Amino acid sequence: MYFVQQWAPSYCSTAPHECEYEPRLPPNNFTIRGLWPSYEEWRPEYCNISDRLDPGQIQDLVKPLNQSWPSLLRNETNLELWSHEWSKHGTCSNLSQHGYFAAALALDKLKLTNLTKILADGGVVPSDEKTYTLG
Hints:
Ribonuclease Rh, Chain A; 5 helices; ribonuclease T2 activity; RNase_T2-like
């Protein structure tokens, strides 16, 4: 599985007219982008399109999900984002709906150290103006 995080200013720089992240998000903070199953080079998607997200299954997770996994799009609610992520990726995870979102939150809590500090120590400063290449 890939645990994917996003930096709101950079994500929104790709579609600024569609994005809205302030003041809902804490500054200088990465948020969850997704938890994506992966098998070597292959990432399955939409494994069970009839399995729609039931908000009642994740009711106890809504508060932490709102903080850690918010939608950055102006015309998309958090629940709409989570429903999309469940349909596209969660249905391929072999986890229950609750298990999938709880796993993402558990991985998010593993940020025992400030991720921006770790990156800065490595010479990478999150920015919506500068890009970095892999390699």
